[in-house]
Each structure stands twice: as C-alpha cells, then as structure tokens.
Predict the structure.
Amino acid sequence: QVQFAESGGGLVQPGGSLRLSCAASGSIFSIYVMGWYRQAPGKQRELVATITSGGSTNYADSVKGRFTISRDNAKNTVYLHMNSLKPEDTAVYYCNNQQTVVARIASWGQGTQVTVSS
C-alpha cells in the first residue's frame, strides 16, 4: 500500500509563505491524481488542490491565486506552495491519492501543521 509523508509546515505570520512537500512510496505514483487536503480544528477535512498525472490543476475557491500545487514524478513528490497566507489557512495539511479519497478507502498520514498567526 502506498504511504504518504507530509512535511514543511510551521508557524508563519499573515501574508507569509510556506512550501509543503509530500513524499510517496511506491512505483506507480506518477499515474495518481494527487490532492492536498486540510482539516482545521472542529471542522471537516476539505480538498484544497488537485493535480493530475499530466499536470492539470484545480483549486478550492478559498485558495485560488494564492496556492500552487505541483509534482515531481521522478521524486515521487507533490508540493503545495502557499503564498499570502491568512489565519483561516491554519490547519493540518494532508496529501493523498484523490481517487482513493473519493472511494472512501484512503489511508491518511500524520499530516503537517500550518499555523498562521501574528
């Protein structure tokens, strides 16, 4: 089973930037539609951005123009570049194979905490 390890989170001031990384085990990562998700305290996990194997991307309205998802298939890694961060972006961020999430069979990693605060 493919596993995902998220990293790169931290404490940042409003307006700041972070780059999250997600390393995947397994040799078929390149065919996955990958997604970044986040879960804020007391809220349900939500989809932030997705990227197909060919590099097509989609974003939640709340992050459009501020976040950029990218992937390096040679490194089995997907990234989330976050700019102009807001306090409401505070959450634990996770990555996963979007198809398994939709099928409700996804296994989740530990995630990485992002806190936006002055």
Notes: The two ends are 40 Å apart (CA to CA). The mean pLDDT is 94. Helices lie at 98-102.
